[in-house]
Amino acid sequence: MSLDRTKLAKVLALLASDQPGEQAAALHRASKMLAAAGLRWESLAGPGTDQSAELAAMDNAGRQIAAMLREAQGDIRLLKTLLEAANRKTDELRASNRSLGTLNAALKRRADDLQARLDISTRENAAFRRALGPEAAARAVFAKEVCT
């Protein structure tokens, strides 16, 4: 079994705890991890096991990941803000659409009313012309055109 160095680093970080119980548990856990990997404490510090470059690379990778995470969190905050703005605009447009629907219905009722009045006037005008006869109707049209 290979040694999970990331996990070992986390366990070893607990050695800095101000709680003696946590320190002892961390030391015990680290010893078990080394034994499971077939290693001893001496092998970590022995010759030919200089891992400072590897640890520095891991530290650098951790810093890069943390920076990417902070950037992603900023992007998420921005996206949430944009989504909230879009939702507010959608609500405004829905309210406006409802208002326009109400106005459209009122205008349609008014147009229907005017059309009905025009139909009545047209029928009354036709009845009036029939009652006057063709000559009187022609004189009325002529007088209207001359007067206006």
From TrEMBL:
The protein's name: Uncharacterized protein
Lineage: Bacteria, Pseudomonadati, Pseudomonadota, Alphaproteobacteria, Acetobacterales
Keywords: Coiled coil
Species this chain originates from: Falsiroseomonas tokyonensis
Coiled-coil positions: 69-124
